[in-house]
Structures are given as structure tokens and as C-alpha cells.
Design brief:
2 domains, Nucleotidyltransferase, domain 5, 7-stranded mixed sheet, about 500 residues, alpha+beta, about 40% helix, 24 strands
Amino acid sequence: MKYAIGVDLGTSGTKTVLFDEKGTVIASMTIEYPMYQPKNGYAEQDPADWYNAAVNTIKGVIAKSGVDAADIAGVGISGQMHGLVMLDENNEVIRRSIIWCDQRTAREVEEMNEKIGREKLIAITANPALTGWTAAKILWVRNNEPENYAKCRHILLPKDYVRFMLTGEYATEVSDASGMQLLDVPNRKWSEEICSALDIDMSMLAKVYESCEVTGYITEGAAALTGLKAGTPVAGGAGDNAAAAVGTGVVRDGRAFTTIGTSGVVFAHTSKVSIDPKGRVHTCCAAVPGAWHIMGVTQGAGLSLKWFRDNFCAAEKETAKAMGVDEYYLMDKQAEKIAIGSDRLLYLPYLMGERTPHLDPDARGVFFGLSAMHTRPHMLRAVMEGVAYSLRDCVEVCREMGQNVSDMMACGGGGTSPLWRQMLADLYNCEVKTSSSKEGPALGAAILAFVAAGVYSTVEAAADAMTGVDKVQAPVPGNVPEYEKYYRLYTSLYPVMKESFAKLAQI
């Protein structure tokens, strides 16, 4: 039996999991680390924290499992995207990494649009200029910390810094590189035109691989620290959502997943590059060679339910504590008592502005149709339905782009709710399934490692062998047209409120 390690480098911590060839978890370990916010809107982390967490979790899972290091076929790394790691000529980190949720780069986004043009930027990088993505951060350092920029010799993404420390190789792969806004996404290579327009020296960028290719080998030094065998291959790996797709079996056309975490994501696999000229969704290279993915994001998904729980569900919290059950379980039961449409009450989940399909930071949450007959359970169900409507918005953009989404997985905390899954099945009018594995990105990274090591011939073959389905929620035929009425009304609300949202932001 061969084994592979998946390292999932997240924002709050790094989780490392050791899997066998069937996708069974043999051992798992997580180490957390801090995020620094030196100013409002800033978000930074220390790359040394990521590396130390990776080393110690790899060492930990090998020790816990008792597996012989010689039987570990490979290592794959998944990670938070868009972070900027800058190394000097001695490979020392120059400054803390500016990570994905940092919002300091509004001026640099304008600079990118001025130098390149919004339409050309979307055509080449498949996405509009975004504050959280890496290119704008590089420009910010150059504009605001010229002494640091002058020292820079290598630019890496978070997981690729860990790779460098394990292998000594400056390498990245197509899915994570897609989130830098320096990659020619249709052609899966760095864009000379973009780099030239932004005056970024391409020699600072890492070599680009496919996600399932070998990018380097564990060095003697890294072997001594981790317990891995020197020479163990390290796969390209993938950005977090691309790795989660592989780990849930979303590796063929027609397959997609919905994640309801703090934000919500609809992620659809496609074998043909498809770019939204309006920039409402992200298009990136998939972790499957020769494929791409489309990703819509709704900002306030699980956040909306958490906000409602924290402010209005004290009774459920107390009862859940006394019963020894999860408070969200009781909230589900409360919402189940209310009919579809919450007795003509709709909720717009724009607590943090909106990304897909409106691209509007000024949008705000709304209860529409509130009357004296409505109770707290009505509002609770309306919140859950509103999030489901916003995710349907993401699916509609995918369908508009020619993607036939017919096989949907549900992930994230919200995906554990049978009621929420049923709402999604009815609104998407297709089956919504849950994965038999809860490891998502770590499993995806391990699958890519098995392919790189030659244990499986393709990503698809490995995913077929190592992933499976747990629960299946089919649409209820009578619910589909009922939800459709409310969804159509929901879609009409934002356009008539857009101007008012902008005015509110100016007060």
C-alpha cells in the first residue's frame, strides 16, 4: 500500500492529512497561527509560521500513523490563494506576506486598469483587476515600500513558499498562479504583455507547472525536519478551491460544487476556457490538465446565518446547550416549520456588499416584505432562502456562459444542513450531494501527489478511486416552480435598490 500527504495551508492554520490509495484518512494534524492587521483593511501573515506548521504537522502525522516514510509516494500542497511572498537574493523573506483578504490596493487596481485596460485584463487574465489578488499587492509594495521592492528577487504564493523550503525549487502551478493576475489563463503561462505593462520583472516569477506534475523533491534538510524520505516527490498541488474540487470529485464537465462557509462559492468544472466579459465570476485554470473552472462568490452566505444566530437566536443557543446538540440543528428545525417563501418574506444577503453577480461593495442586507404576521422562524427561513437565491445567481451566470451544471456537491458548514441542501436542489433543479470525505482540499492535494508519483495515471482516475458520495438530495418536483416565483422576485430587487445603496454609502 502506498500513501500520500496532503498539506492544506489555510488562513487560520495548516492541516496535514496522510491518506492511503483509497482516500482513507490514516492520520491528521492541525497547527494554527496568527494573522496580523497593522491597519484597518490590512491582513498579513508570517511565512515562517506556515513553514513551521507544515513541517510539524507532516512530522506529526507520520509519527501518529506509524507508516514507513519509504511508503509515502508523494506530497501535495493546497493553499490560500493570492498572498504575496517576497524573497531577497539570499532567499530571506523581505516582509510579512500580504494575504488574500487584504484590501489596501484600491489605488493599484486603478493603476492596472489605466495601464492595461479593463477589457484586455479580463481577456488575458480571465478576471477584472481585484484588490485581493497578487499583482495589485506587488504594485503596492513598489509604490509604498520601494526599499523592499528593490531587494526582491523572487515572488512566491503562500503554498509555493512552503514548497521552496521543502524542495529548494521556485515553482508554482496553474490554478494558484491564475489568482495572481499575471497569468495568461487561456494559455496557462505567464503573460509577457501584462508583466511588461506593469513593469514586473518576469525573472522573479516561479516556473509554472500543471497541478499533478512533480515540481521538486524533498531535500535532505527537509527530510531531517519532517520525517519524510529525501527524494520524495512534491506535486504542484493547487489553490484551495481547485484542490477542494479534486477532493470532492469535481473533475469532469457538468460537475460543480457549492460551498456555504462564511462566504458562498459555486465552482463549475469546464474543459473549455470560458470567460465572462462582465467580470462577474472568476475563471481560473483547474487542477486537471487542460481544464478550467468558473467560480462565483456570494459574500455573506454562512455569515448571514451566523449574524442572525448571534443577534436573534439566544433561546436556541440555550436550548441547544441544555440538549447537547448543535444550535444550527435547532435553527434548521425552526425554519422547517415555515413554508417556502417564508409567507412572502425575502432576504438579500448583502451584509458585506456583493461579488457575483453585482460587483457592488455598497450593497447591503435587506428584509423585503416584512409584516406584523412574521415571526423569528419566518426571518430565519428567509435568511436561508436568501443565501440559496444568491447562490442560484452564481449558477445562472455559469449557465449563461454555456456551462451545463447538472451534478452538484455541497461543501462547507452550510452543506451539512439537510434543509439548506434541499433548498439548493430545488433552486438548481438538480441533485445535490455530499462527499463521503470531509477533507476536501487536503484530499485533493494528496490525489495530485498520487498522480505525480505515478500511482494513478490521471487526476480523473485518482478522483474516481479516492472520492465518493455520502448523501443525495433530489429536487422535489412541486417545490421547483414555487421557489422559482420567489427567485424571480428576488432578482428584481437589487436593480431597483442599487442607486439607493450608493446614496446610503455616501451619507
